[in-house]
Write a structure and sequence with these properties.
The chain has 371 residues and is α/β, with parallel strands linked by helices. The protein folds into 2 domains: 102 residues, Aspartate Aminotransferase, domain 1 (Alpha-Beta Complex), CATH 3.90.1150.10; 221 residues, Type I PLP-dependent aspartate aminotransferase-like (Major domain) (Aspartate Aminotransferase, domain 2), CATH 3.40.640. It is built from 13 helices and 11 strands. It is globular and about 55 Å long. Bound molecules: pyridoxal-5'-phosphate. Pyridoxal-5'-phosphate binds next to α5.
């Protein structure tokens, strides 16, 4: 066995270094963290479809490097990130609008394209609810169209229900993690009258690997009514930093911009997002780890007799065969947060794919709660 002798003075220096390390890397010691750091310590959080592996090391470095810029407005950083995203998506600079998370993009779409005079919002049921609330707050009629039996968007019915305004297509869909096949979506986009806007939310784009799935960003060129939203909150692991964007034609971006707060994306988020795009490992690592742990979890649930909707995202929807609300509560009492109730699927539990150890903790608790 190797033993290292350290003098009392060296030992004190080491302790000092450890304390400093704790300040820089808080995850190394949860014991005595201030409340703002320790708020979620000890809780297994499988409720918000976050990436448990966190941001790219390049993003963390970029944040550290930009501490000194905290006193500056983020104009240049905004522009640098837009340039990178324009290149990545093969569009021009004026076809990208950044948002304070893609949530801001959704809100801007509701404000710009729905309302008493502007028209209805048509969305699937169930789907990610944020934009429904925002359209309603904007005075718009909101029409919900149930998903098909294969949990795809029922595009013909959604098209028929639209009165100008906006059609929201979440693909892959939250909370079902299911996709709407690309041939159907492409056809729908091409045939929808241009006076009706279509927002395709691709928050979970990176996790979808079905041959029937593809991004609709390339369709923006020929479809003036198409907007595609993306986020840095999922595979890029930056949910707490807040950065998202959309791709659309220049005229559409110009219609949305007046509704946006100036400088809405902070300089740390911009620097981190920009650096993430330079990390060739962030996306494949996130995809691989999610797939492995998802397969493990689905396999274990299957052995326990619980089916899941086939998932093309970083979360799954479990058919619990009984009302989920008491189960959500029972899991919470065991320190495990799972997804909220989606009333259209009231026996289903939405579960984010965390790290393998977190899923093992979940499975043990789920087994106890269900028996
Ligand atoms: C489908 C979908 N769109 C948008 C968002 C908002 O993400 P953010 O504002 O973090 O980019 C979420 C968050 O979970 C989501 O599930």
């Amino acid at each position: 066995m190797n033993t290292i002798s350290i003098s009392r003075r060296n030992f004190a220096q080491l302790l000092g270094a450890a304390a400093a390390a704790t300040l820089v890397r808080p995850e190394f010691s949860f014991a005595k963290q201030p409340e703002h750091v320790a708020a979620t310590a000890g809780v297994v959080r499988l409720s918000a479809n976050e990436n448990p592996y966190g941001p790219s090391p390049k993003a963390l470095q970029a944040i550290t490097d930009s501490f000194g810029l905290a006193c500056r407005y983020p104009d240049e950083h905004n522009s640098i990130l837009i340039d990178k995203l324009a290149k990545l998506n093969a569009v021009s600079h004026d076809q990208i609008l950044l948002g304070d998370g893609s949530s801001e993009i959704l809100k801007l779409c509701a404000e710009t394209f729905t309302g008493k005079e502007r028209g209805t919002l048509v969305a699937a049921d169930p789907t990610f609810e944020a934009i429904l609330e925002q359209a309603s707050a904007n005075g718009a009629e909101v029409v919900k169209v149930p998903l098909t039996s294969s949990f795809a968007h029922d595009l013909p019915k959604m098209g028929a229900a639209a009165q100008r305004g906006l059609i929201y297509v979440c693909n892959p869909n939250n909370p079902t993690a299911s996709i709407t096949p690309n041939d159907q979506l492409r056809d729908f986009i091409t045939k929808t009258p241009r006076a009706t806007m279509i927002l395709v939310d691709e928050a979970y784009f990176h996790y979808a690997d079905s041959p029937d799935y593809e991004s609709v960003i390339p369709l923006v060129k020929d479809n003036s009514n198409l907007i595609v939203a993306r986020t840095f909150s999922k595979v890029y692991g930056m949910a707490g930093l807040r950065c998202g964007y959309c791709v659309a034609q220049k005229e559409t971006i110009e219609r949305m911009r007046p509704y946006q707060m100036w400088d809405s994306v902070n300089i740390m988020a911009l620097a981190a997002a920009s650096a993430s795009l330079d990390d060739p490992d962030q996306v494949p690592n996130g995809q691989r780890l999610n797939k492995e742990v998802k397969e493990f979890t689905v396999g274990q649930l299957d052995k326990m007799g619980y089916k899941t909707i086939p998932s093309q995202a970083n979360f799954i929807m479990i058919d619990c065969k009984r009302p989920v609300v008491p189960l959500i509560k029972a899991m919470k009492e065991r320190g495990i947060q799972v997804g909220r109730l989606f009333p259209a699927l009231s026996n289903h539990m939405r579960l984010t794919i965390g790290k393998k150890s977190e899923m093992e903790t979940f499975l043990a608790a789920f087994n106890a709660v269900m028996t």
